[in-house]
Amino acid sequence: MKRLADSGSALCLLLLALFLVSPPAVRLAIHCGWLPGADKEPLPGRAKAEEQAELIALLQNRLQEVNRDLQLISSAGGLLYDPSGGPGSRNAARYRIAVADVLPLSTPSAGERTLCVSLYGIPVLQKDSAVLSGDHLVGRLVDESTGSGIGRIQSILDPLFRVRFRCGEDAGMLWGTGRTDGDGHPLLEVHHLGKPPAFRAGDPVLTEGGDGRYPPGCIAGRIHLMPGQKESRAIVRSGIRLDSLRQVTLLEDLARKDLAILGEKDR
Question: How deeply is 83 buried, as exposed, middle or buried, from its count of CB atoms within 10 A (0-12, 13-18, 19+)?
């Protein structure tokens, strides 16, 4: 009896399986929403799920943009510090940050010491805004062609480039030389020390921030040659190569901008 019961159950299961895979069963399943039908309108639940998926994708894209902005702000905030060792939060709050793509037509050759950048989608920035690559000094914005979306940057390779620096206890001016080392890194010359230098080869050189143009703590490079080593003056070697730059960060000093507005009001 048990064997007959088992055989009957197996037969019932087989008939049920044949029914389920038959065309009428398939049509019934589609009609009831059990299986997707190509010629049917999306069910309300499915449409809602698709809307949620689109919203999630949109939020993920926005989150990526926010994370990118936070990374840039954190990077810039880390280098804008008080040379005396104080907190840099107030210094970092002074600067508006924007990112620009370096245009491939740019050339830091002997005849052209400038870089051209795309300012499309970027708020208008003040002339003389500092330009960095990571924590490294690149130059300053000398011209922004309003309406064209193109900006021109005077790089540290320009012989007319000037910036105040600090290296340990020493402070002075760095001048562009228009020269690079064998690896393409720009070389800058130390001027106006006022006393015999205490720095040594390999010491980091940072912007002082006292010139009202460049924020304190940007990396200008490292001491490359001491006075008397092939050069009459100390030479600083930049840590970047201008021909390899693809993006740069621009820092606009809001305090300098506000001071200029106050000066105009006092006239």
Answer: middle
On whether the CB atoms of residues 115 and 155 are closer than 8 A, the answer is yes
The answer to whether 134 touches 142, Cβ cutoff 8 Å, is no
- The structural domains of the chain, ordered by start, are 95-254 (2.40.10.350)
pTM, to two decimals: 0.63
Summarised one tens digit per residue, pLDDT across range 143-176 is 866 567 888 999 999 999 999 999 998 999 999 9
SS3 label, residue 208: coil
Between the two ends of the chain, the Cα-to-Cα distance in Å is 113
Q: What Å distances lie between residue 63 and 32, 58, 60, 74, 256, CA to CA?
A: 39, 9, 5, 16, 32
The structure tokens 């693809």 sit at 246
In degrees, rounded to 5, the angle at the alpha carbon of residue 36 between the alpha carbons of residues 33 and 37 is: 100
Strand partners for 118: 101, 150
- pLDDT tens per residue, range 193-233: 888 889 999 999 999 987 778 888 899 999 998 877 767 78
**Separation of alpha carbons 57 and 230, rounded Å:** 59
SS3 213: coil
Tell me the sheet residues that pair with 155.
139
Question: Following DSSP, what letter does each residue of 50-116 receive, concatenated?
Answer: HHHHHHHHHHHHHHHHHHHHHHHHHHHHHH---TTS---HHHHHTEEEEEEEEPTT----TT--EEE
- Residue closest to 240 by CA, chosen among 249, 231, 252, 251: 249
DSSP H helical ranges for the chain: 2-21, 23-32, 44-79, 89-93, 254-266
